Amino acid sequence: EYSVSVILPCYNDAPLIVGAIQSVLAQTFPVREILVIDDRSSDNTKDVILQFGDRIRYFRQEHRGVAHARNLGLRNAVGELVAFIDTDDRWYFRKLEVQCRYLEKDSSLAMIGTDQSYSFDFQSVVIPQGEVSPTVVPFQDLIVKNRFLNSSIVIRREVLESTGEFSTLIPLSSDYEYWLRVAEFFKVANVPLPLTSRIRSWNTFSSHPEKAFSCGLQIIKGLEDRGHWRGHRLLKQKAKALLWYSSSLLNDEAGNRGKAFLCLFFSCLNYPLPFKCGDTRNHFARLRRFVALARGNVHERIVAKRLETR
Description:
This protein is an alpha/beta fold. It has helices spanning about 15-25, 45-50, 65-75, 95-105, 140, 155-165, 175-185, 205, 210-225, 235-255, 255-270, 285-295, 300-310; strands at about 5-10, 35-40, 55-60, 80-85, 90, 110-115, 135, 155, 185-200.
């Protein structure tokens, strides 16, 4: 069996981190180690972690952000596989078992995630008796939109060593930028089962919509610098349109209705064609949001936003 290292960065999340750790310890596929990287929390995070004893490898760094924290974890992890989880996320108790089974069957598979569960207690999760094939994520699909939930990822050590560390220059999207670098050269996939849940979905990004947008532009430019948009002008426009659309959602969440409307306009300007299902909830998601914003219907906008996160 594979040995698995789990990297868990944290910052002032003492009330939440216990649940994340417990969901890792409850796995039917035991992990070799859990590395908690404390980004210099000022609450009682350290005391909470120490209660778990030698089941946790605890590291504390200067307050430098989540990318630095994950990199510190990578440098100290010893498992053949590395998994990631954040303090506000939880794993279904058979998550690693399912993912490791697929990695064992397909040696060409470098990285595997899962779908997201919207039930915190995973009440709706049913593992089929028959085989469920992982959904391969083509690079051309990944460059227009992130298809991976960070806390669902399991990745082979040799792939990590080949890819390098998380970029510390893209603070809000360092995970997405990393998955792109992996997918440039390796096969990546998702298990089409909701084995990872999130307590919080938009707080980090919606509190910094302009910073999130800037990070998205950096990723698009990085792809351009590596020649990935050459001959794919329409695909680049679609990526920009999805970024503007995401920015509209974030600004609306932050209460910036005017900016939300403007971002939606630029999304349509960059790519007037309908998005395909999977990029957004449905083909006419932007039209629905235009109508909701024009009406000023707060409830309708919130419902639409929640649907779009699914």
